[in-house]
Description:
The chain has about 190 residues and is an alpha/beta fold. It has helices at about 25-40, 65-75, 95-100, 125-135, 165-190; strands spanning about 15-20, 45-50, 80-85, 110-120, 140, 145-150, 155, 160.
Amino acid sequence: MAQGEITVIHHLSIGIILGSTRPGRVSPQVGNWVKGIADKRADANYEIVDIAEFKLPFLGEAGAEEAVKKWSAKIESLDGFVFIVAEYNHSITGALKNALDLLRDEWHNKAAGIVSYGSTGGARAAEHLRGILAELQVADVRTHPTLNLFTDFENMAVFKPAAAHEQTVTQMLDQLIAWSGALKPLRKSPVGQA
């Protein structure tokens, strides 16, 4: 290492989880935007985690143990999450609910931020997700960027966020990193493993 060069050691791994799997979904656009903001920071490793790529079975469905094993290993390896949440019928997608339900211990004592979108900014989906996360012992942070399909997307298909959203994402990430760092030691303690 050259003199004066700074080495950044990343202690936290944060997964940006795309919560929609339908054809034509906009969650990859939103997830990549969040990752672009996150990558300007030097506080964690951020990666996109697309549940569509895991080809997860429905809970209780036989024959896809390898897919669940890979999903388990991915979630276990992460210290925190940013959920990119589409609102479907006033709630989260079935694919996201299933992905959450397939695991249990892998979620425990971690932190999450939520970025939601929909006709009302996805607020109702985010509120449903908060209840599910509480049961999975995931601490969700307060700041919650909400994106409106009518004002932040062109023709409800091309993501063009208002500039002010970047500051809200930054605040959410500040809280997420603080909570993820605080909870990491708990997972190694006897109390955290109970």
